[in-house]
Amino acid sequence: MNNHATPTNLTTTWALLAAALGLLVCLPLPSTAQKAPPSPPGAYYSAQKPHEPPFPVNRFPELPIHEVRPRVFVVDDSDVDYDLMQAQSMSESGPSVPGGGGGGGEYIPPYLPPTIPIPGVPLLAIEVFDGAKIVSFNTIPGLVYRVEETANLSNPVWTTIEEFVATSSDSDFVAEDDAMRFYRVFQEDDIIQFPDWFDSIYQYMRFDVYTPVTDGTYAMELYADGNLVFTGANTIPPDGRFFVHDVNYNPADWPNRGYYGVGEWELRVTVTPAAGSGGGGGGAGTHRVVKKTGVQRNPFGTYKGMTVGQSGIFSTTTTAQDEVDQSLWFCMAAMYNACEIVDWNFSFVDVPATDSSHMSVHATLYNATQWDPLRQWVTRQTAANTLSGNTLDYFHYMGHGSPKGLGSVAGQMITLAQLRGSPFLKTDFLTYAALDGCRTMKSTKLITALVGYGETTSRLDIAQKGGDPHFGCGWDDVKQVGWVLQGIKNDNHFYFWEDFYFHLTHRNQVTGLMDRTYEQAYAFARNPMGEGVNHTLQSNAEANGFKMVGCLNCYFDERPRIVQ
């Protein structure tokens, strides 16, 4: 995505990441680095140790400093060896530190917490979970944001790592580097906004635009895979809203409308205030370029699903492991109501009525023998994996996880980078993905790469926008499947999933179609009131931390049902 606005037209913050602790200071974009000893009085923060309180004087006048707000500075001490300095200070004697007191214009610096809110700019925060850096900040829906990173501030080379239109008041992404980095986020001005934004175009092509400029003109160009397919220009409407869309789309045809065969849509928008309007008129215009992925769907037919669980939940074969297998079998049997079941080699699996003994053969992930083909099918990167009906569409995973992927051992994982790197997964998302692993939903990037949605939405809203009825879920924190060091199965965790699927697969006796939504299934699993698999369980606290994205009030068989 290209941005034509200069940094002077952008609202920015930056974050200084402490390598060891994952803490940060969030500050406005600095001015040009200064080298002007003696340094002026103020609060001096360390770029290397931003979690520490500031000093009232600059300890390193020879180093560059950045004034990030009046009398608040950041010293670029990235190359300072503090361990060596401490060792030297311990071997030398020196004057005692003077006591308190003051007066006569002495400047006492304020203590600013690790995250410093600045009114009117994005508040950047960084958390580290299981080696994954989650970068998050407050956003204004409809505005364009760009996140950049650099390895140092002495001679910074800023690289764009994320660029998007915000869809909520909070946004996040996973920073895939593992080294110390400095981050800053640019918020475009509000002259051109994109309300009600979807990242992808499925069955209905539409771009909505809004501008607060009340007197002026707009111009638009729409490109499909680089080919110009639409141009339009006019005076700005009184309400500031204009759009380009497919006039032939009818929500009544959803979800069987058809697709465009376009991989990437690009809209170029220019808003030019009228001369004398006070908005920079007389030829000066604001430009924005935004893109949406073109999404396809599997051909109509029988859909395929996998239920898999990682081995090693218990160190040895125990009765508890047998119970885990039984619970996973229950999930597999439930999925069998919406699709045909295959294993990691995409071989069909018959789901017996009562026996779960085959789980260890068809659904347990032991090593690379199972992980390698599973990864290929989930990322849709196998020679046989063409859009001819041999495509994975439903997926339930139980095992170790993090915001960066599924699994915990190198080579026996499915990582966010692998999902993002799949060209097939970019254009044909899974209908359903349940990620039963710790913190798999701490950031929504992992689930978005699988199902295409990072926010919740409604069935009606998806129909109006021509999207597909996809759904994803997982946990935003740690979940103890087995009690720590005791090898005891956490029954309530598995009760939750069994109750969730029990309610989700309920069928209407007249039509034969499922009649319980994902949202209703979650509500039941949270409070089964004695009607679930455990007849004494009224409320299940294990439901805490369950996070959902996509179509909340769609049905488990929403996609296959249209061909029955």
Q: Any overview of this molecule?
A:
The chain is α/β, with parallel strands linked by helices. The protein has 3 domains: 7-81 and 112-187, no CATH class; 200-294, Immunoglobulin-like (Sandwich); 304-563, Rossmann fold. It has 10 helices and 31 strands. The strands form 8 sheets. Strands 19, 20, 21, 22, 26, 27, 28 and 31 form an 8-stranded mixed β-sheet that branches. Strands 2-1-11-8-9 form a 5-stranded antiparallel β-sheet, with no helix packed on it. Helix 9 (491-504) packs antiparallel against helix 10. The chain is globular, with a radius of gyration of 27 Å. It starts with 10 loop residues before the first strand and ends in a 13-residue tail after the last strand.
Mean pLDDT, rounded to whole units?
80
Please summarize the sheet with the most strands: 8 strands, mixed
Query: Gyration radius, to the nearest Å?
Result: 27 Å
Structural class: alpha/beta
What's the domain count? 3
